[in-house]
């Protein structure tokens, strides 16, 4: 029973990290029609910035988190204006892939040059090093914090996209950008805000998940397949689909590593194949936000 409980806690925490990072990719892919393979690189940048802020500058964990997210968003906005804006809604997905994978390699090279090719860590505060009691059980405080942040992200995104003017204008701009512009919706600013939202989520997940997805020089290349898998299984543009996919794949992957560690990530990809065989367009295809 202890093993099952440990698998459940670690699997849900791991799934929440996958969700927080992947849902930003899901938003840009499902709503803005951009295959952004540099999404994982943005998460890596935030993690490295938070590590430097915490260890090099001595900032508290929360301050390092906020600084990393804000700096990552600010640093990527010029890319949105100069590069991404040219490929929004492009029917040529190959150009999107080539642009964003090229940008990924540039970012990886810059990070290696600036921070060195070594594993980085983000020191956790004392409050996240202990345990939290849930009835007769105790779980690591950091895992509980990650799960709570994941739940807050789900609710916050649902409210933003379904219950605010921003969400209404975004869906209108996606469905018919020319008509939206004719009605006075400033689509360029709307797309920039959506891009910043996706980047901010990637940055948040990159910092929160440093304990589960270690910050190493090729983070962006190693983990982008995981993020794309969550989007594929959940359905592009679907918040709850991404959450369901991330939790399912996170629990399966964690269970496999707990029970049969020699098989590595076999169970993750086996589950991915089986799910896509049954739901080839994802869990929530056609019900995207």
Q: How would you describe the overall organization of this protein?
A:
With 289 residues, the chain is mainly α. The chain has a single domain (2-118, 140-278), classed as ABC transporter involved in vitamin B12 uptake, BtuC, CATH 1.10.3470. The protein is built from 11 helices and 2 strands. A two-stranded antiparallel ribbon has the order 1-2. Strand 1 and strand 2 form a beta hairpin. Helix 2 (39-55) runs antiparallel to helix 3 (61-82). The relative contact order is 0.20.
Counting DSSP E segments of at least 2 residues, the number of strands comes to 2
- CATH class bucket: Mainly Alpha
What is the string of helix and strand elements? Answer: HHHHEEHHHHHHH
Mean pLDDT level: 87
How many angstroms does the end-to-end distance come to? 38 Å
User: Which topology does CATH recognise?
Assistant: ABC transporter involved in vitamin B12 uptake, BtuC
Please compute the radius of gyration using only Cα atoms: 19 Å
| Uncertain stretches | none
Number of helices: 11
Strand order of the largest sheet: 1-2
Structure class:
mainly alpha
Bin the helical content: over 70%
| Major sheet description | 2 strands, antiparallel
Give the CATH architecture. Orthogonal Bundle
Question: What global shape is seen?
Answer: globular
Instruction: Tell me the β content.
Output: under 5%
